């Protein structure tokens, strides 16, 4: 197909009616930048560059400053008042504490053990003995329905002096927890030596994957949690009263004198009656690696061997020696929620995932899901993101989520396979091409669609010299040929924003919307390896559309035709519903001018959530944050899911 300025006159379709709001004056609240002086005539008369240069790239090297705020923030729950703390202190009498039993998961599994498995093998285990405990380690007490429960915890240092570490299975999604408190150094002779510290609703923090149904078996490496306590009734914070034991992250397994503390409870077992006195043991820490078995996901765990560590020891600390003191290297949990025998206990290995959840607890926000995505500093170098079906080794291709194709500033090309939310939305990385000058210096616009009708995704790339290339059926193995849709030319050098979607009658995502440097908006329908299809001039050259900084596409309103998402230069976000290139198509203002959204440098629509619609949006921010907005509609961009924190 000939380049734009050589098209026959019959193909130049008249400008269609545009919603009145589309030509409204720019918002006075945020000044819009001066638009390019290029016109259609400028584009047609421009000289084709014989060799592209890096300076042709549209994106500036300098990034805007870090946004001061985000479109939404998690609501923080208020702390327990001193009066409420006093009521909880009065509620948890020694008699009620004495009635508490271990968490249901541990109790049920211990009940299934044969009698011989309940007896400790003291000859091969390190000896254990009751003691009065240490002040940084204590017990959580709470009410679950009509039953009182308990689990162990350890105070760790935090800016708010209020964080306690424990096992996630102590507070998983099946628990209906009320009247939750932490009692440091609880023991029978002195049940509340340092007082009672309440925990309000919403102050339990663990990886979101763990609280999904079956999460304790599927995510054995994530069996840790942090709870944010409120001050006791006199206003003092827990760390101010008892101190704290620092976390030991990525500390390995070579720790011969590890102290293990727990609160065992198994009626009828000699020496370990339900008195809730702490038990201590010093033993070597070991590395335990196992395959998956009995529905439990295998992996590598920390292991200790102490006799008598039965039901009730969940959440108790593995304390190693470090820097002249103690450090927390694990909590009883992980593999089979800590083990199914009274003499061997396990912990999820304390690695960077522990820090991720801890940081969220300190901030008072639920942690993001674990992800294979790189950090924010890396994402500052993401130049383009295309949403499509690139990874073919998924378990359910017909109902698959979309994947992210990323062009990095050094030319590296990467695909991140889409996955469920409990797997962090993306679960595998494929390097399609290493760093290279061709893509790094000359690929300006990248979009994905199904232009060849094979249900997989193809890429269209606009190069700095105006060439337009189709790469069919891109997958995790790389490229499978290429087709030149436009040779190097002056016209397409002015294509400043391109997106693909389903804007015509067929079922394929094979239509292109192009925003030109002079504000003209064009629609190319039924694009294929044969050419650019039919061109419709949707909006004539104008000043307003030069401010359409980012455009994306998706099926946000649930009809046959897809919608356009436009991020304007002042941060306004607009959904153009059922976009066809002709009248009528609706305009939905998702939000007005917003200084935060001026930092949304990449906006890519696609299908990344459970429903089968392409109503989700990936946003890459100027500070490297990556956000997924799921289940968008005509009123909202969707629910915010932070994938990468700045």
Automatic annotation (TrEMBL):
Q: Would I find Signal among this entry's keywords?
A: yes
**InterPro entries reported for this sequence:** Glutamyl_endopeptidase, Peptidase_S1_PA, Peptidase_S1_PA_chymotrypsin, Trypsin_dom
Q: Where is the Peptidase S1 domain?
A: 145-335
Q: Where is the composition biased (Basic and acidic residues)?
A: 106-122
What molecular function terms (GO) are annotated for this protein?
A: serine-type endopeptidase activity
- What keywords sit in the KW lines? Signal
**This protein's superkingdom?**
Bacteria
Q: Which GO terms describe its biological process?
A: proteolysis
**Where do the segments described as Disordered lie?**
24-130
Q: Which residues form the signal peptide?
A: 1-24
Q: Where is the composition biased (Polar residues)?
A: 35-47, 66-82
Query: What is the official name of this protein in its record?
Result: Peptidase S1 domain-containing protein
Statement: the UniProt record of this protein carries the keyword Signal: yes
Q: Which organism is it from?
A: Streptomyces platensis
Q: Which SUPFAM superfamilies match?
A: Trypsin-like serine proteases
């Amino acid at each position: 197909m000939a380049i734009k300025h050589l098209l026959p006159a019959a193909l130049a379709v008249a400008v269609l009616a545009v919603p009145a709001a589309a030509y409204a004056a720019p918002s006075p609240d945020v000044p819009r930048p001066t638009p390019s002086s290029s016109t259609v005539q400028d584009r047609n008369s421009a000289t084709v560059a014989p060799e592209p240069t890096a300076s042709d790239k549209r994106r500036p090297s300098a990034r805007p400053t870090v946004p001061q705020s985000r479109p939404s923030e998690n609501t923080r729950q208020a702390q327990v008042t001193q009066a409420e703390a006093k009521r909880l202190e009065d509620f948890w009498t020694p008699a009620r504490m004495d009635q508490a039993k271990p968490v249901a998961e541990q109790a049920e599994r211990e009940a299934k053990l044969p009698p011989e498995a309940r007896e400790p093998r003291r000859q091969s285990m390190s000896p254990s003995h009751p003691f009065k405990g240490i002040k940084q380690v204590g017990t959580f007490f709470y009410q679950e329905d009509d039953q009182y429960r308990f689990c162990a915890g350890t105070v760790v240092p935090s800016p708010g002096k209020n964080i306690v570490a424990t096992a996630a299975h102590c507070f998983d999604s099946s628990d209906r927890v009320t009247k939750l408190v932490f009692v440091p150094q609880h023991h029978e002779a002195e049940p509340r030596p340092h007082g009672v510290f309440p925990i309000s609703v919403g102050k339990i923090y663990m990886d979101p994957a763990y609280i999904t149904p079956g999460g304790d078996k599927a995510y054995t490496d994530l069996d840790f949690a942090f709870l944010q306590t409120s001050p006791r009734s006199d206003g003092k914070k827990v760390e101010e009263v008892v101190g704290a034991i620092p976390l030991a992250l990525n500390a390995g397994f070579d720790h011969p004198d590890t102290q293990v503390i727990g609160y065992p409870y198994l009626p009828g077992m000699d020496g370990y009656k339900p008195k809730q006195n702490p038990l201590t043991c010093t033993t070597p820490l070991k590395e335990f690696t196992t395959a998956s078995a009995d529905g439990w996901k295998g992996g590598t765990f920390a292991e200790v061997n102490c006799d008598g560590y039965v039901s009730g020891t969940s959440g108790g600390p593995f304390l190693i020696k470090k820097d002249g003191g103690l450090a927390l290297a694990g909590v009883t949990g992980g593999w089979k929620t800590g083990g199914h025998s009274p003499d061997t206990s396990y912990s999820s290995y304390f690695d960077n995932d522990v820090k991720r959840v801890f940081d969220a607890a300190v901030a008072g926000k639920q942690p993001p899901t674990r992800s294979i995505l790189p950090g924010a500093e890396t994402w500052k170098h993401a130049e383009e993101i295309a949403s499509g079906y690139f990874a073919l080794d998924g378990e359910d291709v017909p109902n698959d989520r979309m994947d992210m194709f990323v062009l990095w500033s050094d030319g590296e090309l990467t695909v991140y396979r889409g996955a469920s939310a409990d797997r962090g939305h993306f679960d595998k990385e494929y390097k399609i091409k290493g760093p290279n000058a061709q893509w790094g210096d000359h690929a300006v616009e990248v979009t994905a669609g199904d232009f060849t009708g094979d249900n997989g995704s193809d890429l269209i790339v606009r190069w700095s010299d105006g060439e337009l290339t189709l790469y069919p059926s891109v997958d995790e193995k790389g490229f499978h040929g290429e087709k030149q849709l436009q040779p190097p030319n002056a016209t397409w050098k002015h294509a400043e924003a391109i997106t693909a979607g389903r804007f015509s009658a067929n079922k394929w995502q094979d239509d292109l919307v192009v925003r030109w440097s002079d504000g003209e908006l064009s629609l190319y329908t039924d694009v294929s390896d044969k050419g650019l299809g039919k061109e419709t001039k949707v909006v004539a050259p104008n000043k307003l559309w030069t401010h359409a900084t980012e455009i994306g596409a998706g099926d946000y309103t649930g009809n046959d035709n897809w919608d356009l998402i436009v991020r304007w230069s002042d941060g306004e976000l607009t959904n153009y519903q059922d976009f066809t290139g002709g009248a009528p198509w609706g305009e939905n203002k998702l939000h007005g001018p917003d200084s935060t959204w001026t930092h949304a440098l990449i906006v890519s629509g696609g299908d990344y959530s459970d429903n089968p619609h392409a109503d989700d949006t990936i946003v890459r921010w100027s500070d490297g944050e990556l956000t997924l907005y799921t289940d968008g509609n005509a009123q909202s961009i969707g629910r915010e899911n932070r994938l990468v924190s700045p």
